[in-house]
Hints:
By secondary structure, this protein is an alpha+beta fold. 29% of the residues lie in helices and 24% in strands.
Amino acid sequence: xxxxxxxxxxxxxxxxxxxxxxxxxxxxxxxxxxxxxxxxxxxxxxxxxxxxxxxxxxxxxxxxxxxxxxxxxxxxxxxxxxxxxxxxxxxxxxxxxxxxxxxxxxxxxxxxxxxxxxxxxxxxxxxxxxxxxxxxxxxxxxxxxxxxxxxxxxxxxxxxxxxxxxxxxxxxxxxxxxxxxxxxxxxxxxxxxxxxxxxxxxxxxxxxxxxxxxxxxxxxxxxxxxxxxxxxxx
Length: 234
């Protein structure tokens, strides 16, 4: 629904709150990426968005590179695309039983939110959005990570439709090759996405949004925020 997105209460609040019982479980150890010096060159904004207990990563449609072109073709009226990860059963069918089953592991979905005329800060609030300046190469690596999350058929992403009574918080749902569980949550995936762009973020032990958001705020405090406010229109 490009251009019509409004603030909503999102399914990951329920799913990730349920993970509180697993707070002592740590994810597989993944060290933070080492920040590497990059030459002065064109930089583009990578958006990190906190949606309650869930974190998305996003980009301007104008900055889409080949790895995500097949998916982006479905959102030509969008200005920004946000990406997240979640449990397939709960997202498509809803229900408390599926929410609980998500803790034990199962198929995941790639989640897409389309924003039209509004910048992410206008939709989610400035305190819930951090812009990180990345090089075109870093952006390409992040988009490759997202594309590699997708299951495809004949090279095309496999879009799926949720049941009418499912939570329905996102604009599009795509089959994923990754599994969702208490050890690999929506926020673990987002941390790994940021790592793929060679940002100094660790996914080790990240299960909840707050654990990741602390690291994202450190990026902001250390000057990694994309300070040029106007984003390029597609």
